[in-house]
């Protein structure tokens, strides 16, 4: 009986030893080459390397695909479509020669060009159309033209006064130039000098934004701003490039009359 027990225990011990050896073999297989049993630094490096391998490589910047001549469906207008639509709009009804832009030059001031929304009744096969909005400073009128991009023809044209779409960058630059040149712009130039130590030479020295001013928004209107609403008037918001804001909210520039007024 004792002999049987010893034999049984011997099998158990031997089995346990084999299990330990097998486990050790598995550990050795997972360690990096040349790592010793007590080399914790190498094991940490291997683990870090594994984590690094799991991170996606840096992206590669590729050139944008070449833009086609025509868009599809509700795709934004292509450059070619925009050029064709604007040419057709300017050529219609003598607009190119009769209207004037913000600087008084021949031709209207373009405010925006966008893909027009089609009538749902036309279905999914409707032609793509462009909608171009201009401002004629000669007549103080907003002009909207819709061009069929397949036929190249102006399908509709609308002219409205007392309608003032948001300002463009060119208009804000012109309004700021008028403000700088006006006696009321003295404070703007002084604040710029104080902030930068340099003289304010033009709109390019500033970061600009702004919004339409209408006399209905303010009760205390100086006489030089009495036509705002009919005229195209802006309040300019100015900021020193990489610097502080300059408070110009009390000044209004009438671009139609090329005059500057102060509120309050």
In round numbers, the mean pLDDT is 82
Global geometry: globular
**What composes the largest sheet?**
5 strands, antiparallel
Kindly estimate the percentage of residues that lie in beta strands according to DSSP.
15-25%
Record field, number of beta strands: 9
> Which structural class do the helices and strands define?
alpha+beta
In short:
With 264 residues, this protein is an alpha+beta fold. It has helices spanning 2-30, 40-54, 79-91, 95-98, 169-181, 186-196; strands at residues 109-115, 129-136, 141-148, 154-160, 206-212, 233-240, 245-246, 251-254, 259-262.
Structure, explained:
- The protein is of the alpha+beta class and 264 residues long.
- The protein is 32% helix and 21% strand.
- The chain has six helices and nine strands, in the order H-H-H-H-E-E-E-E-H-H-E-E-E-E-E.
- Strands 5, 6, 7, 8 and 9 form a five-stranded antiparallel beta sheet that branches.
- A hairpin with a 4-residue loop joins strand 8 (251-254) and strand 9.
- It is globular, with a radius of gyration of 37 Å.
- Mean pLDDT is 82; it is low at 1-37.
- It comes from Streptomyces flavofungini.
- Keywords: Membrane, Transmembrane, Transmembrane helix.
- This is Tat pathway signal sequence domain protein.
- The chain crosses the membrane at residues 12-31.
Topology, please?
Layout: H1 2-30, H2 40-54, H3 79-91, H4 95-98, E1 109-115, E2 129-136, E3 141-148, E4 154-160, H5 169-181, H6 186-196, E5 206-212, E6 233-240, E7 245-246, E8 251-254, E9 259-262
Antiparallel strand pairs: 1-2, 2-3, 3-4, 5-6, 6-7, 6-8, 8-9
């Amino acid at each position: 009986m004792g002999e049987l027990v010893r034999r049984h225990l011997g099998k158990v011990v031997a089995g346990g030893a084999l299990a330990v050896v097998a486990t050790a073999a598995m550990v050795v297989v997972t360690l990096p080459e040349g790592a010793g049993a007590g080399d914790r630094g190498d094991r940490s490096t291997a683990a870090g390397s594994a984590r690094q391998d799991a991170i996606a490589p840096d992206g590669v910047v590729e050139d944008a695909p070449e833009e086609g001549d025509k868009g599809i469906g509700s795709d934004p207008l292509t450059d070619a479509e925009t050029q064709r639509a604007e040419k057709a709009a300017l050529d219609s009804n003598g607009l190119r020669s009769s209207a004037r832009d913000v600087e008084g030059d021949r031709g209207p001031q373009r405010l925006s060009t966008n893909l027009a929304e089609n009538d749902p009744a036309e279905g999914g096969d409707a032609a793509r159309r462009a909608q171009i909005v201009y401002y004629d400073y000669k007549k103080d009128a907003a002009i909207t033209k819709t061009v069929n991009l397949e036929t190249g023809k102006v399908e509709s044209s609308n002219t409205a006064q007392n309608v003032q779409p948001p300002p463009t960058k060119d208009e804000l630059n012109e309004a700021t130039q008028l403000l700088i040149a006006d006696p009321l712009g003295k404070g703007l130039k002084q604040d710029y000098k104080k902030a930068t130590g340099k003289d304010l030479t033009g709109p390019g020295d500033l970061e600009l934004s702004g919004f339409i001013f209408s006399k209905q928004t303010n009760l205390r209107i100086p006489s030089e701003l009495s036509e705002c609403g009919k005229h195209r008037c802006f309040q300019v918001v100015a900021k020193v490039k990489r610097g502080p804001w300059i408070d110009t909210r009390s000044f209004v520039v009438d671009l139609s009359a090329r005059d500057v007024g102060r509120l309050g």
